[in-house]
Design goal:
The protein is elongated and about 95 Å long. It has 23 helices and 16 strands. The chain is about 40% helix and about 15% strand. It has 3 domains: about 140 residues, Rossmann fold (3-Layer(aba) Sandwich); about 70 residues, DNA polymerase, domain 1 (Orthogonal Bundle); about 240 residues, 3-Layer(aba) Sandwich (Rossmann fold). The protein has a 7-stranded parallel β-sheet with strand order 9-8-7-13-14-15-16, sandwiched between helices.
Amino acid sequence: MTKIKTIVLDLDDTLYSCFEQRFKPAMKYAFEKLVASGLSCTVEDCLERLDSILKNNPSDKVFRDLVKTYSGDEKLVQIGQDAYLEYESEFLVLFPDVLDTLRKLHQHYSLALVTFGNKETQEKKIELLGLKDKFDHVVITQNADKEEAFLEVIDELGIKQNRTLCVGDRIDSEIKIANKLGMTTVRMLHGRHAHLEPTTDFEYADYSINTVSELLAVLDDIKFTEDKLSKGPRIVVIGGGTGLPTLLEGLKKYSHNLAAIVTITDEGRHSGRLRRELGILPPGDIRNNLIALSDSEKLMHDLFQYRFDEGSLEGVSFGNLFLAALTKITGNFQSAIRETSKILDLKGSVYPSTLDDTRICVELVDGTKLEGEVNIIVKGDKTKNYIPVRIKNTYILPENAKANEAAIEQIRTADIIVIGPGSLHTSVMPNLLIPEMAKAIRESKAKRVYVCNIVTQPGQSDGYKASDHLAVVEKHLGKDSIDYLILNKEIPSEKLISQYKEDNSFVVENDVDFIKENFKAKVLVEDILEDLKEKKLLWEKLYLLRHDSNKIAEIVASLVINGNS
């Protein structure tokens, strides 16, 4: 949630009851007028077609359909519309609390009215209801999803979508579209759409009310929540890849005092190309975490995650290009991140673990040394001849890389530090291999948590059990430096397991008894596996086993907010 500046309200069944016990009688009255004026059918014929015609169309569409179906004169459309409004206008009465509530709201917020239907009819309703001067902007649309109307309001009033509250009764129209645009949504439980159940995530409103006056309590709750989150615990998360943004998405609901400390050893895809050609730090992981913490409108999310799909820029992320350009303009990477954070309205902050140009390296048990992330990551070898890799040691070059002092300060003042989830040797370890970083974490008074991976990663953690992951972390961070170890207990489907086996990747074994005997960390074995239903913006594979952002954030938050131990 964020500070609300503008409230957009629907008209029918939100500010007055337009349907219950009035709509069909008004339609019947209009049909009688049409038949009497020459429409070549009966009133019963019109009533039979009513529901199917009206499903997602304004009322004048009914009259146009009837005239077309029964070969009537075009002038009958207006006759039917006038008759409908004539009947309905006798019953037009605002809900009792509307005018007083609008007056109170207008003292602190700009107000907009977006209504769906025939322009002349809706304008007449607004006038008869006494609402003509109660709004800063009014839009009447014949497009049922109202997206263009909402965008017109946003443009006209110069507001941000994430600072806008939308109130309406239709979950398949205004609620759905407002959610997609990044607005806070309130569903009015009135009229013919009150019985509808959400079928997609976008149709779930943030709040539901029965009277307009309840909006005042909703706004108080939003303000209270925003104030509470701004004073929430100081949570630092450390890692890289896709694991960190997953966790941040969930943690935003518990605190806005969030700091992501991100590895910058990425050398793959477009980030690696920018690194080589422009001499800047790789922006990809930074971009993903900025998006995860962003509270900006959906368009900005989509823009920063957009990848060109053709030409010389094919596969290139706009967000990466933006950070690269801003680095050149501002003179350094940290300044570019800071300015981007303002644009994206971050609920937290993002820091590279170091501002030095570093590479992650490993030494295998056979003495082989691999330099650079792209040489360490195994791209899913599906052959039967795959030979598991065992890493003896992990290090960075240059070995004297300095920690980002701004990141160190976040660690010093943290209430809880979460390491992972993420690729152990290429996402997690590059941060811990910076001496100052490891020292700051070790000396911090914060609770220290390590989130173990769900599956092993070929070329990095072949054959690793949970204890092996923890041992690698503590090898560089310090013995018994982790207070809590979070493991997944949910067993994936056999289909998913077999798909991972094709890539020589296996579910991590939770050797809890061994950990309890040999490590200080308290083991928390929980269901933290995400329910896979759809592809997400940061990932391409549907079958990827991922940590559930909400489940894992709830566990982390309970350790620091509720003081669980």
